[in-house]
Amino acid sequence: MAAHSEKGPSSSSRWIHCPPSAKLCAGLPDSSSSFAKEGTDAHALCEYLLNTAVGRDSENPVENLTYYNSEMQECAEGYRDYCMELNEQAKQSCKDPVLLVEQKIQYERFVKGGFGTADCIILADGTLNVVDFKYGMGVEVSAKGNTQMRIYALGALEIFDALYDINKVQMTIYQPRKQNVSVDEISRDELYQWAEQVLKPAAIAAEEGTGEYDTGEWCRFCKAKQICRKRAEKNLELASYDFAPPPTISDTEIVVILEKVDALVAWANDMKEYALQEAISGKEWAGMKLVEGRSVRKYVNEQAVAAAVIKAGFEAYDKKLFSITEMQKQLGKKKFEEILGKLVVKPQGKPVLVREDDKRPALSTAKDDFKEENEHGKQN
Hints:
With 380 residues, the chain is of the alpha+beta class. It contains twelve helices and five strands. The longest helix has 30 residues, at 251-280.
């Protein structure tokens, strides 16, 4: 497994926005989840397929992958094809582009001890391409202003800039399970300017443990998120919100609450999980106790249960159609579309209230429809 820098690319959004968190997290243990392990497996498969595509010897990792399935294979193949397409495009402006897989990069000039590993780098005259594969399904990741991607690009420039006439950097997040391919561009000069004016000062503050603690979306993967006082204070602001007269809250106040409530719920869930795990480890919380939660009955042995029920003269199985997800796994995405494309529909999703900068188009409301009918009537 690759080593990780304390001020690495993947955690950069956190330590750039919240510099003291670097020292705070350095003393805390690492944790892993099944989602992270699944992502590691998917990256290993991507590495193999891409190396094979460019003619490099690579050992097939499939038999050693715990989470391998047809979906992972399809996602990895899509990533490979995308990178190879970018490589073909690079050949149009450069006779000898180079595609690098799992390339070690360093940015020591701007960040002490700064190093990392980029999934895919395509070196060519004109444009440097950096592609990062995300297998997660939880949060859709954008390449726009993405500090992790900028650091990968910066690290690549630090090593290879002298070999190619690069004036622009293109950065891509390839996230197949969210149907998300996000692309951002920045000029070489702008990237170096960002490194000097934003990255380097933040790295110095992180190294010294100075600067201000700050909260935001970068808290999501912070090792100290459950015990961070700043995050607690920020979320408790909503609980102590000063509701002024009259007795009903205004539309403006409701918007303020809506903007904070998701972060509040996430923080509350993190606190509950942290306290639970500490209690299981033996910690006693004043006024609280650890009890057995509700459970659901389950069979000890499904085959033995079925055999016993059938022997008694009853039906043990209820045959039903595979779910769409399971059916697609059985058939593979291409075959699924070929056989069932016209037999599967996606109903309109349940309305959700989100921030105005969300990229999904706004739904029309009854008020909009009434307004449109009125305007249409006036025109007639």
